[in-house]
Structure formats: C-alpha cells, structure tokens
Amino acid sequence: MKKIYWLFVLIVCISCTKKDDDIDMSFYYWKTNFKMDASERDFLAQNQINKMYVRYFDVGLKGGIPVPISAITFDSIPKNLQVIPVVYIKNEVVLIPNLDVKELAANIVKYINQINEKNQISMNEIQLDCDWSLNSKEQFFALVDEIKKQTNLKLSATIRLHQVKYFEKTGVPNVDEGVLMYYNMGKIAADSLNSIYDREVAKNYIKSLRDYPLKLNIALPVYSWLVHTRDRKPINLISRIRIEQLDTIPNFKKIDKNRYLVQESNSYFGSYFKKGDIVKIESTTAKQVEEMITDLSENMKENPNEIIFYDFDKTNTNYYENEFFKKIVNRY
Asked: pTM value?
C-alpha cells in the first residue's frame, strides 16, 4: 500500500509541474484605470493567470513634441500578478525629422518608473507597441536600442502581419521577443466585413511566419466593438459592446446579422446616434479563435512561449464558456 501511495504522489507532482514546452496564458489590459472586481480576480485565479500586459500610456505629439497621453492609474493590483508595462508609440512620433531618440527613450523610461514607484510595481520587461512604417523604422529601431541600453531589461515589441510578410523591407526590431498581433486585419468600414479577423486575409500573410527571424509569441482577439457609421463613413468606435446589448434596444433595427439601423436620434453608450445611422458589431467567435490556433500552429516555425488575449474585461471574458481560454492554449 505504501508503494501505491507514493506512486500516486509522484504522478500528482509530475502532472502539476510546468513542462518546458508548456505555453503560458496572459492578457492585455487596455483601459486607463486598472481596477478589478471580485469576479475578475476569481477569473485570474481559476485560469492561473499571473501576468498581465498593461497599457501604461501612449506617446503622441503635442505642438510637435512627444508627450505621454492618457496614463494608467491603479486602484489595486491582485497579489502575485506580474505587470508588464506596454507603451503605445504613435507612428507620427518616430516620423519626426532628427528625433532626439536618446531623450525620448529617457523620458519613456522615467515615466514608466514613476508609475511603478507610485504603485510599488517591480518590472523585468517593457513592451513597445508601434505600427512603424518604412519611413519611421530607422528611428523606431534606434529607440528600441536606446531603451534596451538604458534599462538593461527584457524588451518585447508587437509585430503586425504585414511586418512579418515584408520583413526584409520593414525590418526587424532588436528585441528579445515579438508578439504577433493576429487581429485588426482589415479596414474599418460601413459594410458587413469584419476588420478584426478575416481568415482569407490572414492566409495572405501566415505562410511568411516560417521565415520570420524573430521569436514570436501570439496575441489573439477576444474583444468586440461597435462601429458607428454615418453616410457610409465610420465616425466612431465604441469598445466592449456586444451584439446582445444592441438586441435589447428597440431603436436599433436589425438589418443583417451584425448591422443595425438607428430609427430615431438618441444617445447610447455615451455617444449620440442620429436617425439613419448604421451601427455594426465586430467580434470573434469561439470557433474563429480555435481556427486561428489551428492555422498558426501549422505555420509557425516554433511554438510560442506565451499566448496573450486582447483584452481583459468582463464583457470579453464572460462572453466565452468556462475553460475556453485554457482550451485554446492547450490546443496549440
């Protein structure tokens, strides 16, 4: 009996030990106030999520000078949650002629440190989010190098699909890891197409992953937004709105599977909607996320270390069934 008992203990210990090829699960947090209720904390615990990529601030231009925009504030941070600062750098910033890269890097690092000190956050990584162009890549890459030099921390960067396919032209940043943004694949428009995810569009890029020289993790979309159009032109995006919410508003008349006609002028979700406006919901289904994993696993040259879901919010996590996120990671 003793032998059986110790054999059982050994099996349990082995099953609980993280394997070298296990893929971690984490989330992006993309709101300006970091605050979680009890149900959201329970979600983290139940899914064993101990890391979150938190948007700290954007860097944009004001009077031609790079400045931080909409910095994060923290109410409280769950115990044992590792916070990775993410800084979104608008392309206009790295297009400035003769940009003082050293000064910009110092200002970014200083502001991150100020936020960390105020909220007692320790960090071992910074992530930069920038959709650089052919004209801005040299200065963005120089900024990457300077931040790396000034911090001596792990540095990661978001990578778009077009930057993968055309990497010989667009270049590869000198970061420790990239994060493939497997979403925002199309143009935001008034028609019924989905700008978040389109498998046919993805197929034009995905085979290029086999040749991309940088180690990549994966960011997958589990978000939704409302596209508000007037005279066939998009005029507003409202995040974290689901189609079920529109179905409860009599003033929104459904005209196809994801589009609605505004019948009378009124305000909803903090925005004004005019009679005749068209709204549509763009999102990704569980089946689509599963198909993303299938396609990626067949085309990436090596497994990712991590899958990051965008983004963390009850309207997103509650939309999918229990264990959905674990199943997605385990499918890879």
From this structure: 0.92
Is 193 among the domain residues? yes
Q: Same domain, yes or no, for 263 and 288?
A: no
Q: Which of 282, 297, 312 is the last residue of a domain?
A: 282
One domain for residues 198 and 326:
yes
Instruction: Cite the DSSP H helix spans in 135-222.
Output: 137-151, 161-165, 167-170, 199-203
161 lies in which domain range? Answer: 23-222+283-331
Examine the domain organization and report whether 27 and 72 are in the same domain: yes
CA distances from 200 to 194, 246, 285, 297 (A): 11, 28, 16, 17
Token pair belonging to 176: 């420790």
Nearest to 331 by CA among 23, 52, 50, 15: 23
Residue 119 CA: distances (Å) to CA of 18, 72, 217: 30, 11, 28
Pull the structure tokens for residue 158. Answer: 């978001």
DSSP state of 268: E
Contacts of 182 (CB under 8 A, 6+ apart): 161, 197, 202, 218, 219, 220, 221, 292, 296
Residue 5 within a domain: no
Q: Quick check: 210 and 153 in contact, CB under 8 A?
A: no
- Do 32 and 126 lie in one domain? The reply is yes
Distance CA 49, CA 326 (A): 10
Tens digits of residue pLDDT in 292-328: 999 999 999 999 999 999 999 999 999 999 899 999 9
Structure tokens at 163: 């930057």
Inside any domain, residue 89: yes
